[in-house]
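Researcher: Predict the fold of Aldo/keto reductase.
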Amino acid sequence: MMKQTALPSGEMVPVLGQGTWFMGEDRRQFYQEADALRLGLDLGMSLIDTAEMYGNGGAEEVVAEAIEHRRDEVFLVSKVLPSNASRRGTALACERSLKRLKCETIDLYLLHWRGGYPLEETVAGFEDLIKAGKIRHWGVSNFDTEDMEELHAFDGGKAVSTNQVLYNLSRRGVEFELLPWCQTQRVPIMAYSPIEQGRMLNHPVLARIAKECGATPAAVALAFVLSHDGVIAIPKSSTSKHIRENRRAVDVMLTADQLALLDEAFPPTATKTTA
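Model: Structure tokens for Aldo/keto reductase follow.
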């Protein structure tokens, strides 16, 4: 059974989903990537994250292939670029994403990062889309604590459903201030690049703990991220082997001693940052 966490609305979503960054960039990989996402769905990783930016829309097309005839199983997340995030531009971008995704509604629509348009204007665009039935929830990405406080300060801003940020063992800046703030406000953090695109996986401490747990270093790295309340991880993988390794993370329960070893090997940072 896949562990879940609650959005502010009370809706439950899986703590382990699937990312699509770098998918849709090579048409020769199109069906392999779609097959990987389908396997993830079979294993309960039913939250799929994508964006109009990924592969210039190509990742959304991969997702469309993967979820054909299975849309009801999926909690679908996509993002609008800040350059498109005016009130009208947000609506137009969403329509383009829906067309590529071949569906009628996006479950969670995010502002990819802050840009030149006022937050109030983008949020008004999100509210328009909710009223039109085009999206169900909205959120943000790459926001620091001050950004979240500003968002919460105006009418409608407290409806934010998540903040998607870079978070993994080697990028722990969100733990300094942002993660506690989001936990207090019951706004889940969605961790992208939760295994640092594989760059940390040869670390001997990860290998040692993985052996103790009967898992892989990737599963241990994911299990660390998931050991924090209100955190969703969205690793990207295009192979069945890695999809299965990622799924194992939900069943890995790290001990206090193992967490202490990880703290020693990957010390928490002393500054606040989302990157």
